[in-house]
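Same chain as my last thread, 300 residues:
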Amino acid sequence: MSAFQYNNSEINQLLLEYLPKKKGLQETVIRAMDEAVENGGKRIRPILMYEMCRCFAETCGEERESWIGDIAPFMAAMEMIHTFSLIHDDLPCMDNDTLRRGKPTTWYTYGEDMGVLAGDALMLEAMYIVGRCAADSSDPSRAGEAIQILGEKSGIRGMLGGQAVDVEQTGKPLNEEQLEFIYRLKTGALIEASLMIGAVIGGATAREAEIAEKIGTNVGIAFQIRDDILDEISTVEELGKPIHSDEKNQKTTYVTLYGLEKAEAEVERLSAEAEELLEELPGDKETLKGLIHMLTDRTN
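reply #2:
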């Protein structure tokens, strides 16, 4: 397993600055959405976005102060959209989970109605943030392209579309093509978007953004297969959420389709290919390599 460690404290603090203040008659829903974001996530997607942007910006000789203001709103928006997807994924009408990151899920704490609204609010707040900040960007055209990527990869062509197919096919046998479609959209799309937005804001060419997308595809699918593996072999204490939930919800996974050994081999193949693609991009990529290892070798 990877020994790579990433200190996300600075990035975590940056993200929290974008959360709405807990005040007004709508304070309950704001508290629910803020607590969901604050609840100890690894910040994988904003970290990937930050590090990809850094690679390109530093190659162009830009100081951090000149690009961090452009990428920060997208980092916060990405974490909000990811959190919205988790809140809705836990709902009784979806996976009916009561534990997330070792704590009670949003709907279990605030009620199903407020859980739905908190997820909706995070999605809409994310678009408000990037829309508000685009005009102040040092390069509005890059910001506009990044907003388009965020919308595409979050909606029916991305994460939400994958979730819809996953829900519709629950309890039904899936083949490899169907399973890969769900994994690529439901899990991979936001990782693709994170790397693509980081590249675009950092000044990547269209070809380089395509490479970033492909890296995200591989990492996203490997990440989800690793999640399948952990659901089989880990514990509630290690994961901070229920185990064997795929079996409980009668979901076909890479492990149920091919077994643990082939699942592990596929994770290794996808990760190696992602690293090869990374070599085609400019800048110091050692941190990104370490992140890929950390995500695909993780134990929780």
